[in-house]
Design brief:
Elements: H1 3-21, H2 29-43, H3 57-83, H4 88-119, H5 122-151
Length: about 160
């Protein structure tokens, strides 16, 4: 231990003893009454004015379903306006024709992944995985060291 550490510990002990011996102060009566009044006001709010987490389960489910249906309606309306189609059958045909090339691309990517998994030696795969884990741990350690250096500097007497 160096001299700075011991003096900081002594200062901490003296401050702790001094503050521990101080009398506890009571909050002003006006503050206490205002806090209780606010708590009562918030408790009296209807469920739809409180946070989403406090809504009844059925109301939350209905809200999420309604939002999802609005998103789908907006997407379908935007697509129909963009391609100038008028019936739902035309929109459905357009969406299905658009998804076919996507499924072909995803299927090809899956085949390529399976081929590479058979061709690359397992030792390389395990080595790559170990390297990735090592890099993650190194990044985490560097982040922790930077945080400790930049934000958790000890208070030096005289600063």
């Amino acid at each position: 231990m160096n001299e700075h550490t011991t003096s900081a510990e002594k200062l901490e002990r003296v401050l702790h003893q001094t503050l521990r011996g101080a009398a506890m102060r009571r909050a002003p009566a006006t503050l206490e009454s205002r806090v209780f009044a606010e708590l009562e006001r918030r408790a009296a709010l209807p469920w739809w004015r409180s946070s989403f987490a406090y809504w009844p389960a059925m109301a939350r489910v209905a809200f999420v379903l309604m939002c999802a249906s609005l998103v789908v309606a907006m997407l379908l309306g935007g697509i129909s306006a963009f391609v100038e189609v008028r019936s739902f059958g035309e929109i459905e045909a357009l969406l299905l024709s658009w998804t076919q090339p996507l499924t072909v691309v995803l299927s090809s990517a899956g085949g390529l992944t399976a081929l590479l998994a058979r061709v690359i030696p397992p030792f390389w795969l395990y080595g790559g995985l170990a390297f990735g884990v090592l890099m993650y741990v190194l990044l985490f350690g560097l982040g922790a060291a930077a945080y400790r250096t930049l934000y958790l500097r000890p208070i030096v007497a005289g600063e």
